[in-house]
Amino acid sequence: MKQLFLWLTAMGSCFYTGCFDMGPPTSADVVNSAWNSLDGFTLHMAGADDTAWRLVRAHGWSVYEGHAGGQGDTLEIIDPSGGMVLIWASNSFSGFVLGEGWTGQTANGARIGTTVDDFRQRHPDFTESGPERFEFHRGTAGVVVRFNGGLLSRIEVRDY
Hints:
- By secondary structure, the protein is α+β, with helices and mostly antiparallel strands.
- It has five helices and eight strands; from the N terminus they run ααααββββαββββ.
- It has helices at residues 2-7, 12-17, 27-36, 49-59, 116-122; strands at residues 62-68, 75-78, 84-89, 92-98, 127-130, 133-138, 141-148, 151-159.
């Protein structure tokens, strides 16, 4: 599991320090740190809604599928490549989704387009939880990995 945590270490210090004014985060930055949240910090302690709005205003991110926050709705923004969605709930960063357009990979080499068999060999700590769906949970945080036609298509990291 440690290798998998190292895989997605990207949200890191930018969410802690608000350094987005220095430039947009890369998907590697976002993924690495948020993934590490499962192994050290709580997702909900990594930036309020204003962090998302700074990315939208200054760095080309946009509101994802109309999820602009507010009572009963999450604030979700998507990066310019379309490969990463960051999610806020109750004015607190609560997760992210990686999909087509994300060009990163796990420390073990899994990436969007990896086969189910290859993923299972690379990450045996995930449990099959449905057709083309694998999960890993630690506390209230979890990772859901989805496949489409036997190929890795989506990675969701959230506080459930």
